[in-house]
Amino acid sequence: MPPLVMGSVYGALGSYGLGLVLLAVVAAAAPAFTGTGVRRTVGRRRPVAQAG
After folding, report:
1. Using CA atoms, how far apart are residues 8 and 2, in angstroms rounded to an integer?
2. Which pLDDT score is estimated for 38?
3. Residue 3 vs residues 11, 38, 40: alpha-carbon distances, Å
4. What are phi and psi of 32, to 5 degrees?
5. pLDDT band at residue 2 using 50, 70 and 90 as cut-offs
6. What angle do CA 20, 21, 22 make, to 5 degrees?
7. DSSP designation for 35
8. Burial (CB count within 10 angstroms: exposed 0-12, middle 13-18, buried 19+), residue 22
9. Where are the beta strands (DSSP E) in 1-52?
10. What is the pLDDT of residue 32?
11. Residues 6, 19: contact at Cβ < 8 Å?
12. Model confidence pLDDT, tens digit, residues 13-43
């Protein structure tokens, strides 16, 4: 997906600047989402009963 976005931005503006900014925003949002949303979801799971 990023190469398509970068190509589209370069084709429309003639510069990679905006594409790089968008890529940086996505890269910064990924750890924030992982640290909040995914952790919360994993924390809600109930442990599987152990057979034995």
Report:
1. 10
2. 73
3. 12, 26, 31
4. -65, -45
5. confident
6. 90
7. I
8. middle
9. none
10. 87
11. yes
12. 999 999 899 889 999 998 988 888 777 777 7
